[in-house]
Write a structure and sequence with these properties.
With 477 residues, this protein is mostly helical. The chain has 20 helices and four strands. 64% of the residues lie in helices and 4% in strands. The strands form two sheets. Strands 1-2 form a two-stranded antiparallel ribbon. A two-stranded antiparallel sheet has the order 3-4. A hairpin with a 2-residue loop joins strand 1 (146-151) and strand 2. Helix 5 (67-77) packs across helix 6 (80-91) and helix 7 (105-141) packs antiparallel against helix 20. The protein is elongated. The model has no long low-confidence stretch (mean pLDDT 94).
């Protein structure tokens, strides 16, 4: 088997077939034909001389696309839309004369882009909601399991595994809210003509402005949109592409941060992403269990984040009613942006489907650090029993320095609590010290915060999309 041409890894390795189909030639050109049918149907309903037989012929050939002929025509015309107008016309000889009537290329090109982006965003939403469901389950399961918090990647006050996961989930929740807003705000470009003035349609309907406005609305509704953008040039506002790809980039931001955390915690052996029975971590170091899924998510997320610069620059660089220097850039940035986001979500769902938590390692790390953190509580308890605060503080400081040296220089365990227990100045028995060292008393409202956040913010979303839950992602590689 020869493989002599470049293969896009988003297709061959990472993205789902579902998302690949949304941006496939089949979906694109079938949508062009659905738009031509909607235009002709609307024109007939508004009084133009179009026969039902012609409409039936168009509808019956929506899926019968001769790509070989279309390629020949495009090579001849150097124009993709007209190549497909003629190709469709070959299949529909009775309707050939009314295809694309009064329309410009952007009628099929731009409207299809909007439709594909909406379909893509709905796929993203389904997977985002499934990811939220798995993250919420994880957060709730471990909402009360104490773990070291970290600031500056240095041990800090305790939190819980579930509370940390709720921070991840909150980022995804914010992405969800943006996603819903963008989906709800998408409109078609509609039937606006060459420079957006609707002059061609006004001519067709003999200066009947109401029929022209009605045509725009009918076409939008037939394609599942409430309305079109009120005014356009030859294209819909290119800021729309920026808004759409910004949401995808935002998901990339969230997942990059989350997988950074997972990679750090996997280094500490506290949690671990799924690792297949026959998976190989390293070609040389056979014992390794590299977090390759999280690393892949981070790599694709950076592509997503950087990709948002394309629509940002394209929107700012448009000339007057339109320039064509947007076209080639959009062919790459929009489709690949969605494929990359889909890949990130597929892998993320897979990771949270099989995340492993090593409680003994978490407890070991707490035991090594908590004695230092507990000294303030020990100090207060000892003062309550009659001790001198300043004297006790100095004892703790001196012992802490000695124990720290023992841990760092000699590699021994933290025995600060044992040494404090032996010091008669503190007057604390083992039972009192054990009570002070109870991990669960250092996590504040963590568990309740998780319950409240999941209950108030996440559960209503999961209930709304309950019919789309249960999705699992199988990775290609």
């Amino acid at each position: 088997m020869k493989k002599e041409t470049y293969e896009n890894p988003l297709i061959t390795r990472y993205a789902s077939k579902e998302m690949s189909y949304v941006f496939s030639p089949d979906n694109k050109f079938r949508t062009w034909r659905k738009l031509w049918v909607a235009l002709a149907e609307s024109q007939k309903e508004l009084g133009l001389s179009i026969e039902q037989e012609q409409l039936d012929e168009l509808k019956n050939n929506i899926d019968d696309i001769d790509y070989v002929l279309a390629a020949q025509k495009e090579k001849e015309f150097r124009h993709d839309v007209m190549a497909h107008v003629h190709t469709y016309g070959e299949k529909c000889p009775k309707a050939r004369g009314i295809i694309h009537l009064g329309a410009t290329s952007a009628f099929v090109g731009d409207n299809t882009d909007i439709i594909q982006m909406k379909q893509g965003l709905e796929v993203v939403r389904k997977k985002l909601v499934n990811l939220m469901s798995k993250m919420a389950d994880f957060a709730m399961k471990y909402r009360a399991l104490p773990t070291l918090g970290f600031t500056h990647f240095q041990p800090a006050q305790l939190t819980t595994v579930g509370k940390r996961a709720s921070l991840w989930l909150q980022d995804i929740y914010l992405d969800y809210e943006k996603l819903e807003f963008v989906i709800d705000s998408l409109k078609l470009r509609g039937a606006k003509g060459t420079t957006g003035t609707q002059a061609s349609y006004l001519k067709l309907f003999e200066n009947d402005h109401e029929k022209v406005k009605k045509l725009d609305k009918l076409v939008s509704q037939k394609l599942g949109f409430e309305s079109s953008y009120a005014v356009t040039g030859q294209t819909y506002p290119r800021k729309v592409d920026f808004e759409v790809l910004s949401v995808l980039a935002s998901i990339g931001q969230s997942m990059h941060k989350i997988t950074n955390d997972i990679r750090l915690l996997q280094n500490l052996k506290e949690i671990e992403e799924p690792f297949g029975k026959h998976q190989i971590g390293s070609s040389a170091m056979a014992y390794k269990r590299n977090p390759m899924r999280s690393e892949r998510i981070a790599a694709l997320s950076r592509f997503l984040i950087s990709n948002v610069m394309n629509p940002a620059m394209t929107a700012s660089a448009q000339w007057l009613e339109r320039t064509l220097d947007d076209s080639a850039n959009r062919r790459l940035s929009i489709g690949q942006g969605f494929l990359a986001c889909d890949s990130v979500l597929e892998i993320s769902i897979n990771v949270f489907d099989g995340m492993v938590v090593y409680e003994n390692m978490i407890n070991k790390h707490i035991a090594a650090e908590l004695p230092f953190m507990a000294t303030e509580n020990i100090l207060m308890q000892a003062v309550k029993k009659g001790g001198d605060r300043q004297e006790l503080h100095e004892i703790i400081r001196t012992l802490s320095m000695e124990v720290s040296k023992r841990v760092k220089e000699e590699g021994k365990d933290n025995n600060l609590i044992e040494r404090l227990a032996e010091d008669p100045n503190f007057g604390l028995n083992q039972e009192e010290l054990a009570d002070i060292m109870d991990y669960t008393k250092y996590t504040g409202r963590s568990a309740l915060q998780v319950e409240e956040f999941v209950g108030e913010c996440i559960t209503p979303i999961l209930n709304k999309y309950k019919n789309e839950l249960g999705y699992s992602a199988e990775l290609n590689v």
